[in-house]
Each structure stands twice: as C-alpha cells, then as structure tokens.
Amino acid sequence: MTNGVTREIPGGGRARLRTFVAPAAGAAALWLALFAVLGPSARWLSRDVLGLRADTHLGTAVEFFLFEAPKVLLLLVAVVFGVGIVRSFFTPERTRRILAGTRESLGNVLAALLGVVTPFCSCSAVPLFIGFVTTGVPLGVTFSFLVSAPMVNEVALVLLFSLFGWKVAAVYLATGLAIAMGAGWAIGRLRMERHVEPWVYAAKGGQATADGNPADWPGRVRYGVDAVRDIVGKVWPYVLVGIAVGAGIHGWVPTNFMASFMGRGAWWAVPLAVVIGIPMYSNAAGIIPIVEALLEKGAALGTVLAFMMAVIGLSLPETIILRKVLRPRLIGTFVGVVGVGILIVGYLFNVLF
C-alpha cells in the first residue's frame, strides 16, 4: 500500500518499536534467566567454591546471603523500573493539584492511595509538607499522605508478595492504608494547625508551571531506567546490610528463642518491636530481608509487621526532619496516633494469623 499511514509506520513507528521493545524483551529474558539460577548458584558458591557445610551456622548464613542478595536486588530493579513508569504520570505539583480543594474525609482516602504510587520518602517530608499546606491541602490530608508514602510503598508490597505471598502483601496494604487514613483523620479532627511553625503558612505555595515528566512512552521508559539508576543506586547498601542481618538471624538465632521473644505468647512483644523500630532507619528493601528471617525463626506475623511499620513509617530521622515545620506537640501527636495504629495492627494479626 502507498498511503501516508503505511509509509509512516516503517519509517517512524516501527523503528521506535524496535528501539524500545527489543531491548526490553532482551532485558526481561536476561532477568528471568538470572532469577532462575539463583538457588543453584548460591548452593554452588557456598558449598563447592567456599567449601562450607550446609548444616553449620556459617554455611547456612552464607548460603542465605548469596541467595537473598541477588534475589532482592533483581526484584528491586524490576519493581523500580515498572513503578518508575507509573511515577512518570505523577509529580509533586500534580499530586498537590489532585489533593487541594478535596473534602477532608475524601482527601484522607485519596491522599493515602496516592502515597502508594508517588515517589516520595521521609527525606522529602519538609518540602512536601510546605507545598501541600501552602496550596490549600488540609493538615489531616497532608498527614495521611506523609504516613502512606514511605510506609505503604510499591517496593514493600511487591517484595512482600514475592517473598511471602499475596495474603501478607494484602494485609500490609490494607492495614497501612487504614493507619494512614485514620491518622490523618484523627489529626484533622484535633484542629492542630496552630502547632505548625508560623513561617510555613507565610511561605509562598507557588504555582505549578510544568510537570517536567515525559509525555511519550519512549520518554517514560527512560524515566523508568533513570529511576532504577537513582533509587537502586542509593538503596543497595541498605539492602545488603539488611540481608546480612537477616543472614545472621537465619544462621545463628535459635528458633525457640525468637518464638519466645517475638511470638504470640509474649504480650509485650508488639510494643517492644515498635520501640525498637522507631530509632532505626531503613527503607522497605532493606528491612524486608530481616522480616523474612524473623518469620522463618518463629516470630509472629503481627509483631514483625509492627516492627517493619515502625522502622519505615515512624523513623527517628523523619521526626527530626519534621521538627523544622512542626512544633513538638504536633510531632508527638503524629507519633502517638500512628504508633497506636501500628500496635492495633500488631495485636490484631497476632490473633488472626
């Protein structure tokens, strides 16, 4: 055929298709091949190359590390790339526009859901808080977003699904969203706007000029690749440290000890897990290998989920950062409300699972 459409496809559309689809298919095939050989490779390296016995503490720990480290990193690359494409549809300006002007109850729900797919963590708490408040987003809605964004993120959900199955991932999603919505609603009802530092309200909210995100699919693919380079490049040390800690727990900590310390029978296990988790700083990718090792050693699901939520949702660094814009009473309320929600989740799932 000689029409203009047919001539355009070979010269433009098909060339662009080959440019992005063929490398993507090759990368996916390589990813699957690497994932398939993780188990045999870990055993070969641990037992044949290093000469470690599988029935020793050291051999068990090393084999755990050699298997989990590449597995989590491979999963992280795939998740960050896919979500990077999703994130290309969202920017801080666009998120503020969505939340500004919504009714508070609806805003709490919407803010918590947006927190799952938007690229923000505790390190961006201050600029996000200022931007949200100064563009008309209610205080309670802002807190729903600030709780959800780091705690109920896509990396945590996909890694939980990959390691523990859909039930645990669904439990974490539902409870995390419930905490984010409930905490934001409660803070909104308390009318604590006067405990925000006055200079925040005096700051200019600014107007969104251009989102700066790609509008075509080739650009979105590049955005996903850039997300992998940026995010994985920053978090891989935390991942390796988390897996090393998990390997130590897996190899040396007795099952009976962990079951008695973090099991269902110890009523104090959930609050202790939260207290231990708050001073720690990690992201989901770094803490989940520790969660996996704790569960394998007999720790209760609710206790472990409470520990994980405290680490990534109530971290001490985030509260220190928020002190720049919040007065101590509001910070204390935020930590208290979210902490109570985490305790309820821990006890509830220790009873149900």
- Terminal residue distance: 64 Å
Q: List SSEs in N-to-C order.
A: HHHHHHHHHHHHHHHHH
State the share of residues found in helices, binned by percent: over 70%
Note the beta-strand portion.
Answer: under 5%
Determine the number of helices (DSSP H or I, runs of at least 4 residues).
17
Radius of gyration: 23 Å
Mean pLDDT: 76
Counted up, domains total 2
The shape, in one word, is: globular
Largest sheet: none
Low-confidence segments, given as residue ranges, are: 1-11, 205-211
| Number of distinct beta strands | 0
Helix-and-strand structural type:
mainly alpha
3D structure, described in words:
By secondary structure, this protein is mainly α. It has two domains: 4-87; 93-205 and 235-352, no CATH class. It is built from 17 helices and no strands. It has helices at residues 4-36, 38-49, 57-87, 92-99, 104-117, 125-134, 139-151, 154-164, 166-189, 198-202, 217-252, 255-262, 269-277, 284-296, 301-313, 316-322, 328-352. Helix 2 (38-49) packs antiparallel against helix 3, helix 7 (139-151) packs antiparallel against helix 9 and helix 14 (284-296) runs antiparallel to helix 15 (301-313). The longest helix is centred in the middle third of the chain and has 36 residues, at 217-252. The N and C termini lie far apart (64 Å).
